[in-house]
DNA sequence: GTACAGGGCG
DNA sequence: CGCCCTGTAC
């Protein structure tokens, strides 16, 4: 037989502002794991009690200047750690890792990069290279592993509403896409795309500044759930919950969800 | 015989932040007139629709740098005007006047004065002198008239929690009290005090910066409803609604309410 | 467009 | 303490 394992990722763009929406979504969807990015709170202000009252464990790492990541889970998480551990800047508010029901989950908020000529863009490319190394040092593509989060990269032309005009945007820049491709080659499957091959217009982010971006579907697919092959093969479905982007005070991103059929026990 | 006319005043300290609280209070209390101060919005951002949906007319004058006044009324207002009209700075965001059901209402947000040695304190004293002249030019103490608002003056020792220590505060300064007394002498009755003579500890403002000011009742009575004698004689009750200061996101002030029995018609 | 930080203010 | 503002980031 086997049990369903439901995973979701959401760039909440302030956990303070989005807490009611997240609690409602958790109650309605009850995922085994929810990965959050851009929580934008220092740890002492993270609303951990609200998650516990909703029946979730939660681990998190934030700071004052933005960023911030968290993993909420129905089962208690094991082997929790934060940041890249290669001797470079650990950037702990951008990476949290936890093992839930035996499955290692890495949740990242990849640096956005500001503009192609800004030092932050070099840092983004370097960060993705360091992340590939991180997977290589800690995991094997032959074993189950989940990588979730806001990757700040749209992998393919199909993943942006205007691939020509956006060619030099930091989230669709050839160098950013190549850096992401290096990680995919290490051994990941794009779980959403596995269930929706060649489907255009499937986005997880719509820029607040673009008028009526959601209605006109002028979006980007920059949030992802990727899995190593032994886990990806067990995926049964994946979807984007656009309704959450139509809520009262929505984030500019929305929820991405994937389901896996796990062996019993 | 006769109908009740209920008037309220509230320094909301940002109409944007306080709108939910105000709408709830209006629904529960249904005053004929609500005078608001420190709306802190330019006119194009005043939430007039929300008042209309609550069944209220509303007139208002605001600006970018703070201040801002409004009069909401169940009946349509007549003779609406803004500011002092004596050739000096009109300061329109500090005075709104409207006639409701035949009763002229002047709603003011008197300048606070910053400190006794600051030019703004001289401006405050001058403003109160100009206001006395304004009443003299437009009205007669022999006719009904209401003056409501944040006067930024506690008239008597009984109206502050520590009259000795606060002697030189701009809101209890002898010169400010004298300037207010000049207006009272023109022909006003302090309606709240008429119904609560010699009652200490009756305040409408508690400084945010004083820890647990409300619980310790370290307040000030600086918000007022004053009436000319023919109207004051018809007042039947007046009270301070401290509950609104215990709400979710309260202002540092609270609502002051007065009721009048008007002749039929 | 939305939310942060930091500074001014009462 | 909790508004305003300005500037910055995405």
Name the helicity range of chain A: 10-25%
The amount of beta strand of chain A, in percent, is: 25-35%
* Overall CATH architecture of chain A: 4-Layer Sandwich
Classified in CATH, the superfamily of chain A is Endonuclease/exonuclease/phosphatase
Global mean pLDDT of chain A: 96
- CATH topology assignment of chain A: Deoxyribonuclease I, Chain A
Oligomer: homodimer
Task: Give the radius of gyration of chain A.
Answer: 17 Å
Q: How many domains make up the 3D coordinates of chain A?
A: 1
Strand order of the largest sheet of chain A: 3-4-2-1-14-13
The CATH class designation of chain A is Alpha Beta
Low-confidence stretches of chain A: none
**Biggest sheet of chain A, open or closed, and with what strands and sense?**
6 strands, mixed
Distance between the termini of chain A: 10 Å
What string gives the helices and strands of chain A in order? Answer: EHEHEEEEEHEHEHEEEHEE
Q: What do you see in this structure?
A:
2 copies of one chain form a homodimer. With 265 residues, chain A is α+β, with helices and mostly antiparallel strands. The first copy, chain A, has one domain: Endonuclease/exonuclease/phosphatase (Deoxyribonuclease I, Chain A). Chain A is 24% helix and 28% strand. Chain A is built from 6 helices and 14 strands. Chain A has helices at residues 15-29, 48-53, 119-138, 174-187, 191-195, 229-232, and strands at residues 3-11, 33-37, 57-61, 69-73, 78-82, 95-100, 103-109, 146-150, 189-190, 205-206, 219-220, 223-227, 235-241, 255-262. Chain A has a 6-stranded mixed β-sheet with strand order 3-4-2-1-14-13. The longest helix of chain A has 20 residues, at 119-138. Chain A is globular. The N and C termini of chain A lie close together (10 Å). The chains hardly touch. Chain A binds a DNA duplex (10 and 10 nucleotides) through loops.
């Amino acid at each position: 037989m086997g049990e369903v394992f439901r995973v979701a990722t959401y760039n909440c763009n302030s956990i303070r502002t989005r807490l009611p929406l997240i609690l409602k979504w958790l109650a309605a969807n009850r995922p085994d794991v929810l990965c959050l990015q851009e929580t934008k709170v220092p740890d002492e202000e993270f609303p951990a009690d609200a998650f516990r009252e909703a029946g979730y464990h939660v681990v998190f790492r934030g700071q004052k200047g933005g960023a911030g990541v968290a993993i909420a889970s129905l089962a208690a998480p094991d082997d929790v750690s934060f940041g890249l551990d290669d001797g470079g800047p650990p950037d702990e508010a951008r990476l949290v890792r936890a093992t839930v029901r035996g499955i290692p989950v890495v949740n990242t908020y990849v640096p956005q990069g500001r503009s192609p000529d800004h030092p932050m863009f070099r840092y983004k490319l370097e960060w993705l290279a360091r992340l590939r190394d991180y997977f290589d040092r800690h995991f094997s593509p032959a074993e189950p592993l989940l990588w979730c989060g806001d990757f700040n990269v749209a992998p393919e032309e199909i993943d942006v509403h205007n691939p020509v005009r956006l060619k030099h945007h930091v989230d669709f820049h050839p160098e950013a896409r190549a850096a992401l491709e290096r990680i995919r080659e290490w051994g990941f499957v794009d779980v959403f795309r596995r269930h929706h091959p060649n489907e255009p217009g499937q986005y997880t982010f719509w820029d607040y500044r673009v008028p009526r971006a959601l209605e006109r579907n002028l979006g980007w697919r920059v949030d992802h759930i990727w899995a190593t092959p032994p886990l990806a093969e067990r995926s049964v479905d994946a979807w984007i919950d656009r309704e959450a982007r139509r809520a009262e005070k929505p984030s500019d991103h929305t929820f991405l969800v994937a389901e896996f059929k796990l062996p019993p026990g």
